[in-house]
Amino acid sequence: MTEEELNKFSTNLFWDADTSTMDMERHAAFIVGRVLDYGRWEDWLFIRNYYGIERIKEIALGLRSLMPRSLAFIATIVKTQENQFRCYEQIHSPNRLWYF
Known about the structure:
The chain is mostly helical and about 100 residues long.
């Protein structure tokens, strides 16, 4: 990721990643997922302008995990039912409690 692209994002998004080796195209799913879950409005506007809504929709449909709030947001933006996203089943899997 170039210095200019990196400066467009909030500093908290990629705290655990080596941004010098990241590529906006090759790591699009990682970037979109991070922005949806942890990004600020400015981060969303940047990826929307960079990738476009259709590409973000395509990426988001295949993400393995998203926070419920992020899923609701992207489903509303792209006008797609939440159950069409890959991460939907994982979010709604029942948490079984252990009874001792």
